[in-house]
Specification:
Elements: E1 12-17, H1 26-35, E2 42-47, H2 53-60, E3 68-70, H3 74-83, E4 86-87, H4 102-110, H5 112-126, H6 131-149
Parallel strand pairs: 1-2, 1-4, 2-3
Length: about 150
């Protein structure tokens, strides 16, 4: 986690990252926030560019806190990953798809201690998926296939 600016101290920050296109369903995230009983506390950061940006800005303007739209470098993005309370990826088809809608958002806002516990556990699990580790696993698979052919 990073130090939050004063303007975000009491906000529940939701982050979504990806191309602003219909199949990424940023609209679903905005609608879920609209339905949340905590919508006035939620600050949505949408990182990305794409053809439906204006449509999403219009839809998001109905929220108590309109979404913040940014286009960032990977290095700048790290700050926002650490700033967020919750990351949501609602794409229809995606390798790493995670869908969280209104009830789940409210649940995490109502259970901040559990969210903190889950963040720690997730961070620990993520170390198993570092690029170096994945590369080693892939090499093991290739070596195994070569040995089978011998």
């Amino acid at each position: 986690m990073v130090e939050r600016p004063d303007s975000l101290k009491d906000q529940f920050i939701i982050l979504t990252v990806g191309r602003l296109a219909p199949e990424k369903h940023h609209d679903t995230i905005i609608q879920a926030i609209m339905g949340s009983k905590y919508s006035e506390r939620i600050c949505l950061h949408i990182i990305g560019e794409g053809p439906i940006k204006e449509e999403l800005q219009h839809l998001g303007s109905a929220l108590p806190n309109p979404p913040v739209f940014l286009c960032l470098t990977p290095e700048e993005l790290v700050y926002y990953y650490n700033l967020a309370d919750l990351y949501i990826h609602a794409a229809t088809i995606e390798v790493e798809c995670m869908t969280v809608l209104t009830k789940r958002i409210d649940y995490w806002i109502e259970h901040p201690e559990e969210l903190l516990k889950e963040k720690s556990a997730y961070l620990g699990k993520s170390s198993h998926y570092r690029l170096e580790h994945s590369f080693e696993k892939l090499l093991e698979v290739y070596y195994s296939l070569v040995r089978q052919k011998e």
